[in-house]
């Protein structure tokens, strides 16, 4: 049984670009399902733009799939949607976006009078899940064609133009570390990442309930658990992760390590092949997801 295996790659904040190329080469050899590229903690200005890094590496390793990690903070929705769609077109349907819940951006804040009536002033990030929900609707709507939206946080009218994605639209990933409403995540995202593998309950009951409440089918949303991992005892770790995934009805795993280039390459070589990662011509097919219906408006 193959599993979705996503590997984290922090570039700029963690690895240099030359080291990232070395990691991507090994990832290509061992057949990871996707690489999730981040550029630092959510909300902080990036040292290197994750979409640019993914575009550079994608040209060198055309068989890999890419998930760009980006927060709402500092990213206007139309701009981010365009960058990810451009990457998706360049890689022939092998791209997605891990949208992180954050704050606003300079472009949007300059034209909107926020907060709007009905929404309290954001203290301690309380409004971030609501911002994520609106942002996700705008982005998926732009990927589907055209948006005419005026909401609490964003005002967007228009389209991105050009050909559509070869996978219907880029994949959207929601991260449980952002304290999102699970029903909102199930309604809008293609992938939901549980923050720690230890938090997965017996089976995927909570996700099933969220999917049913959202009006979607379970097979339209992939459930992935984030697992911190080191390269030592890779054979034992891989076996434990595989059994855990089956026992808890997970679709896959996101492997994260706090080590540098050597640690990451060690995990790729010792753990990933034993998990039998899934693959496909597009990121959506590699994740076992159907071509999506148009996003809800």
UniProtKB/TrEMBL annotation:
<keyword id="KW-0560">Oxidoreductase</keyword>
<keyword id="KW-0285">Flavoprotein</keyword>
<dbReference type="InterPro" id="IPR051260">
    <property type="entry name" value="Diverse_substr_monoxygenases"/>
</dbReference>
<dbReference type="Pfam" id="PF00296">
    <property type="entry name" value="Bac_luciferase"/>
</dbReference>
<dbReference type="InterPro" id="IPR011251">
    <property type="entry name" value="Luciferase-like_dom"/>
</dbReference>
<dbReference type="InterPro" id="IPR036661">
    <property type="entry name" value="Luciferase-like_sf"/>
</dbReference>
<keyword id="KW-0503">Monooxygenase</keyword>
<keyword id="KW-0288">FMN</keyword>
<protein>
    <submittedName>
        <fullName>LLM class flavin-dependent oxidoreductase</fullName>
    </submittedName>
</protein>
<feature type="domain" description="Luciferase-like">
    <location>
        <begin position="16"/>
        <end position="230"/>
    </location>
</feature>
């Amino acid at each position: 049984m193959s599993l979705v295996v996503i590997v984290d790659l922090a570039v700029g904040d963690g690895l240099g670009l030359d080291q990232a190329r070395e990691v991507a080469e090994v990832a290509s050899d061992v057949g990871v399902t996707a690489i999730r590229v981040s550029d630092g903690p959510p909300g902080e200005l990036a040292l290197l733009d994750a979409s640019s890094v993914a575009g550079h590496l994608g040209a060198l390793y055309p068989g890999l799939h890419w998930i760009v990690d980006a927060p709402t903070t500092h990213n206007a929705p139309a701009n981010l949607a365009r960058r990810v769609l451009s990457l998706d077109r360049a890689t022939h349907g092998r791209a997605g976006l891990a949208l992180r819940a954050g704050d606003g951006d300079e472009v949007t804040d300059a034209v909107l009078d926020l907060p709007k009536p009905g929404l309290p002033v954001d203290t301690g990030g309380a409004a971030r899940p609501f911002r994520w929900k609106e942002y996700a609707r705008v982005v998926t709507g732009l990927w589907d064609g055209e948006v005419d939206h005026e909401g609490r946080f964003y005002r967007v009218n228009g389209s991105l133009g050009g050909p559509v994605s070869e996978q219907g639209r880029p994949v959207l990933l929601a991260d449980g570390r952002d304290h999102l409403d699970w029903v909102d995540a199930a309604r809008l995202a293609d992938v939901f990442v549980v923050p720690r593998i230890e938090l997965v309950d017996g089976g995927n009951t909570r996700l099933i309930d969220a999917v049913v409440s959202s009006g979607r089918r379970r097979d339209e949303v992939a459930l992935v658990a984030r697992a911190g991992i080191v390269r030592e005892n890779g054979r034992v770790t891989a076996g434990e992760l595989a059994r855990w995934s089956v026992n808890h009805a997970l679709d896959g795993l996101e492997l994260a390590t706090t080590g540098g280039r050597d640690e990451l390459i060690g995990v790729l070589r010792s753990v990933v092949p034993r998990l039998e990662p899934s693959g496909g011509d597009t990121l959506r097919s590699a994740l076992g997801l159907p071509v999506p219906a148009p996003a809800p408006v």
